[in-house]
Design a protein that fits this description.
mainly alpha
């Protein structure tokens, strides 16, 4: 679900690199 990733990415911003790793595992 890239949509969820985009939403969270927009909310937190590219500054949150940890969320990207977590989402990558969930995705």
């Amino acid at each position: 679900m890239s949509i969820i990733r985009l939403i969270i990415r927009r909310r937190l911003g590219a500054q949150s690199g940890t969320w990207r790793l977590i989402l990558a595992g969930v995705d």
